[in-house]
Fold this sequence. Notes:
The complex is a heterodimer. By secondary structure, chain A is an alpha+beta fold. Chain A has a domain at about 75-200. Chain A contains four helices and six strands. Chain A is elongated. In chain B, strands 1-2 form a two-stranded antiparallel sheet. Chain B starts with 5 loop residues before the first helix and ends with a helix. The interface of A and B includes residues 3, 123 and 125 of A.
Amino acid sequence: xxxxxxLYVVIFTFIVAFVFVFIIALADGATAERVAxxxxxxxxxxxxxxxxxxxxxxxxxxDEFNTIFKDVDAEGVNRAVVNGRDVxxxxxxxxxxxxTITGVLAVDSSLSQIIGLxxxxxxxxxxxxxxxxxxxxxxxxxxxxxxxxGITVRKGEGGVDDDxxxxxxxxxxxxxxxxxxxxxxxxxEIEYLRQEVAK
Amino acid sequence: MSxxxxxxxxxxxxxxxxxxxxxxxxxxxxLAVTNNLTNTLIMTVAVIFVTGLSNTTVSLLKTLxxxxxxxxxxxxxxxxxxxxxDIALRAYMPEISKALGPxxxxxxxxxxxxxxxxxxxQSNPPVLALWDGITSGAGYMxxxxxxxxxxxxxxxGSLMGYQIFGEGFTTWTIMVMPPSAFFLLGxxxxxxxxxxxxxxxx
Lengths: 199, 202
C-alpha cells in the first residue's frame, strides 16, 4: 500500500491514536483508586492538622479522622469534640493571588478563638505566597483570639506575631497580596460561621 | 542516513550542542521549576524518560509514519508518555505532583523533545535514538540542576529542603522569582560560550 495515500494516512493515524489512548485509559483506570485515596488522605490530614493532631502515617490518619469526624460534609460545617472542647471545622475555598486557595479552618464553638488552620492546595508563587503552607505561618493562627472584625494579617517586619490575644498575625514579606487574600478568606469564613451558628 | 557514534552523540548533547545553552530550547521550564532542587530533579528525570522513550518509539515507527502526518504522530507519542508520567506521579508521588502542578503536563510542549524526535529519531535506529534522547535530557538536567542549586541556596538558604545556611541568613527574594533564572541562564550561556571559543582558538 502506498504510504502517502489518503486511506493509509487515515488508517495509520487512527490505529496509532487508538493504541496510545487505550493504554492511557488502562493506566488511568488502574490508578484511579489510588489517586482518590491520596486525595482523601490529604483532606484527612488537613482536618487533623487544623485541630492540632497531625498524623504522618496514612492509615492511622484516616482512622483518626473517621473517629473524630463521624460524618464529614466536605462543603459544610463539621462539629467535633477535641480534648473535651467543642470545635467547628470547615473546609474553605477562596481567591488567592493566582488561583484558588483551599484549606481547613478550625474554630472553637463560641467563635472566639481559632483552633488552627491548614492549607490543602494553592497556586501562589513558590517561595513567596507559597509560604502560606509553611508551619511558621499556620502556627500563628493556632489559639489566636478572633476580634469583632475577625483577624488582621499585618505587614510585619518579617517576623512572627506571638501575641495570641490581639487578633493579629504577621503576613509574608514580599507576598502582601497573598497575605491580604488569606485575611479576606479567613474573615469570610468566620462571618459565614457566625451566621450559621446564630441560626 | 546519518550514522553517528554513541560517544559523538553524548559529547554533542552534553556540551557542543547542549539543548539549553547552545540551542536555547526548553527555556520555559528552566525559568519555572528551578527555584527548588527537589522539583527540578523530578522534573528533569521525567523529561529524560519522555525524550528517551518518545525518541525510541518514533524511531521504531519511522518507516510506517506517513510524511505529511509525522509531526502529529510525534506529538501524540510525546503526549502519551507525558500523561503516563503525570498519572504515575499522581498515584505514587502525590506530594511532588502537587508541587510541580501544571508543569508536568507542559513537558509536552518542551521543544527539546519535539526537536530530538524530528531531527534525530526520524533518521536513526531505535537504540541510538534512545541514547540520544537520554543524553539530550541529561544535557538539560545538568544546566537546570546547576541553576536550581544556586537559586535554592540563595533564595531559601537550603538544598532539597535541608537548611544549609543558619538562621541569620537573609534570603534573596529575587532568587525565588523567575527573573533570577534569566540572569543565571544568561551567565551560564556566557561562561559556556567563552570556554568554547577559547577551545576553538587553541
